[in-house]
Structure to design on (308 residues):
């Protein structure tokens, strides 16, 4: 069974034609399928348009919680062995889904990420996406050309015990690679936007950058945050102690007044800061273990789920 998960916000003009394409492609494949549409707090007639479609499962949020939350809700609702994610604006091509399924079945990968090699976006969006890709490759080293492409296919087990937050839908391959899943890539078609307006803004870019740093932290230090905070704290304490010893030497050998000595002040503040970092590392270590042991609550609320 194939589950297609589509987050949408104010896409009333696109949902009908995209649904028709999906039904045509998925029916021709011969596999059982479900189409899960998540209405992310739309203020236009997106929900009404979705309610007239069939077959479809509609998840309606109480307000807008963002694309990552919508994708998380759709994935948790999915029942298929394979989970396909895609955008609701019609720029991802449903005709690529059979190719993604074949690539997943013929190789040893657990997920295949789409690569919009020939993008049909405005010039400035291409530039900003390229810059983001360069930064991502430096920080994450995930080996993915186009993490912003929502068109991806996953084996169901990829999402066991995985919660998506922030803007982290872009970094799912990096998150899953950290857990040992094998990631592949396939060039896919990218179509010009025919309806509506882009939802990407500079603020989302900043949020994405911060989430990228968070993914890096979780990849390297999720199970050992004490190594980061405690390591920096120990280094700071050592250098501060050396500065204090040198200030003490100046006091007894040259009679330097420590009350106005820069090294003495630096030593005191450095040691105190180092101790704080050590304590922060211990607390972060405990919080990480509690997070793993107890899980977390959902960052979104669902108003209704209907299946037609």
């Amino acid at each position: 069974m194939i589950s297609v998960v589509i987050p949408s916000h104010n896409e009333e003009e696109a949902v009908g034609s995209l649904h028709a394409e999906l039904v045509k492609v998925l029916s021709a494949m011969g596999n059982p399928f479900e189409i899960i549409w998540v209405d992310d707090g739309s203020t236009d007639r997106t929900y009404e348009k979705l309610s007239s479609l069939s077959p479809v499962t509609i998840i309606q949020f109480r307000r807008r919680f963002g694309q990552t939350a919508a994708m998380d809700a759709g994935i948790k609702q999915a029942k298929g062995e394979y989970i396909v994610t895609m955008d609701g604006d019609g720029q991802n091509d449903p005709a690529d889904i059979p190719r993604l399924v074949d690539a997943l079945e013929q190789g040893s990968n657990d997920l295949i990420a789409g690569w919009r090699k020939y993008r049909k976006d405005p010039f400035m969006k291409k530039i900003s996406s390229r810059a983001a890709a360069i930064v991502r490759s430096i920080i994450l080293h995930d080996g993915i050309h186009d993490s912003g492409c929502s068109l991806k296919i996953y084996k169901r087990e990829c999402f066991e015990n995985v919660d998506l937050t922030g803007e982290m839908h872009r970094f799912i391959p990096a998150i899953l690679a950290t857990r040992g899943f094998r990631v592949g890539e396939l060039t896919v078609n990218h179509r010009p936007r025919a309806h509506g307006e882009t939802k990407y803004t500079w603020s989302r870019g900043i949020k994405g950058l911060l989430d990228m740093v968070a993914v890096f932290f979780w990849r390297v230090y999720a199970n050992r945050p004490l190594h980061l905070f405690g390591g920096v704290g120990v280094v700071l304490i050592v250098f501060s102690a050396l500065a204090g010893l040198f200030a003490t030497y100046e006091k007894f050998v040259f009679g330097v007044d420590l009350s106005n000595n820069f090294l003495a002040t630096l030593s005191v503040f450095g040691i105190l800061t180092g101790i704080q970092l050590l304590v922060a590392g211990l607390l972060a270590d405990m919080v990480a273990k509690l997070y793993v042991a107890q899980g977390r609550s959902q960052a979104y609320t669902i108003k209704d789920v209907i299946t037609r």
